[in-house]
């Protein structure tokens, strides 16, 4: 377990990285709740063989699931995908239940998308509809939005992963995928097709495990840097500088205090993409599976 100062130290480091427009995350500790919002995997030392650990054989991929990590769509054309991670850890859910009802959701982001008729893909954790049931139903019934799998409780799959609690073992990882698939299928009426690793932390074997569970793992090629970033101009610049045809842009649906500038940044990002001739679509549309 990490100490308070260690978590605060990580938060400070993350804020610095975010301001530099690089991979970033933030950890806030308030009212006893630790909230961790990674956006990209931290560098990891090369994997060392573990002689005593028998390698689990992943199940074969189901038809339709791609056995590779997708980071972007076709570089021809004009389409890009705006994706918003709806993180909800057990600690965040405890904060919601303790009365901090806005934790994990900024409805202004959805307002901006709806007002501009902008399609988007939401990577939703299995716990998110428990914390925000009305919003989850509203998003699920809106044809602008596609809802995909972001694990059950946003635990990290491979260390180091921003201090997130870790999933232990392949069986638990399969549970993370399948429990959420069941929840999202119940919510939307159809099974998710894509899975995003919390924090992007994964191995090649994890990619195969997700594909074996019937979902295609999807990362990103443009990091908005919205966690821990109070200045919407920085977030907008990161996106507009990085976006190209086929880009998958990662942002967060969680709002303040963890990603306070996302909604405001969209007011620059959406017209900016249009000026550059880039057209937001859902992941299904971008990847040609819709
Ligand atoms: Zn996430």
Rounded to an integer, what's the Rg over CA atoms? 18 Å
Output the structural class: alpha/beta
Strand percent estimate: 5-15%
Distance between the termini: 42 Å
The beta-strand count equals 10
Present as ligands are: zinc ion
Describe this structure in words.
With 290 residues, the chain is of the alpha/beta class. The protein has helices spanning 4-19, 90-97, 107-115, 128-131, 133-140, 170-188, 204-212, 232-242, 262-275, 283-287; strands spanning 27-30, 33-36, 79-86, 120-124, 145-149, 194-195, 216-217, 222-223, 248-252, 279-281. The chain has a single domain (64-287), classed as TIM Barrel (Alpha-Beta Barrel). The chain is built from ten helices and ten strands. α3 (107-115) runs parallel beside α9 (262-275). The N and C termini lie far apart (42 Å). The model is unreliable at 1-36 and 38-62 (pLDDT under 50). Zinc ion (ZN) is lined by residues 85, 87, 150, 154, 198.
